[in-house]
Design brief:
The protein is built from 6 helices and 4 strands; from the N terminus they run H-E-H-E-H-E-H-E-H-H. With about 140 residues, it is α/β, with parallel strands linked by helices. A 4-stranded parallel sheet has the order 2-1-3-4, sandwiched between helices.
Length: about 140
């Protein structure tokens, strides 16, 4: 069952979204996890779904996600492909990538908080000149 509880979608309704609707790219092969994540963030975020790194990268240019959620079971090479590609793009180099471990319980409220926190940090980094520029300084 991938450690996700059935209250995943309903718990999220109690969290207030920040500012404008952010776009969340979810990369996961498991249909149950995708459905739960989509239900959990519906109405709070725009959701874009991909089943692998190749599909995700084809969607990145069009949708410019604010946060990327990645299933840890995708494999190191696919995860690296996504993170390296994001880091190489000036407009996306501060895009947070949140790893989801399907073997650990994940509640909706916790996921929303992680997404909101990641967006806040990324906005600060972006306004400060991007992650690459900050690391080079």
């Amino acid at each position: 069952m991938y450690g996700l509880n059935h209250r995943f979608a309903t718990d999220l309704a109690n969290v207030t979204p920040i500012g404008t609707r952010a776009t969340v790219l979810v990369i996961d092969r498991d249909p149950l996890t995708l459905t739960l994540v989509e239900q959990a963030v519906a109405g709070h975020y725009e959701i874009v779904v991909a089943v692998d790194a190749t599909e995700a990268l084809s969607l990145v240019d069009e949708h410019r996600p604010d946060v990327v959620l990645v299933d840890m079971t995708l494999g190191a090479s696919e995860i690296a492909m996504v993170t390296v590609t994001l880091a190489a793009c000036d407009e996306l180099d501060s895009t947070p990538v949140i790893m989801i471990d399907p073997d650990q319980p994940l509640n909706a409220m916790g996921l929303r908080r992680r997404i909101d926190d990641a967006i806040r940090v990324a906005r600060r980094v972006y306004l400060g000149g991007g992650l690459r520029n900050r690391l080079a300084a």
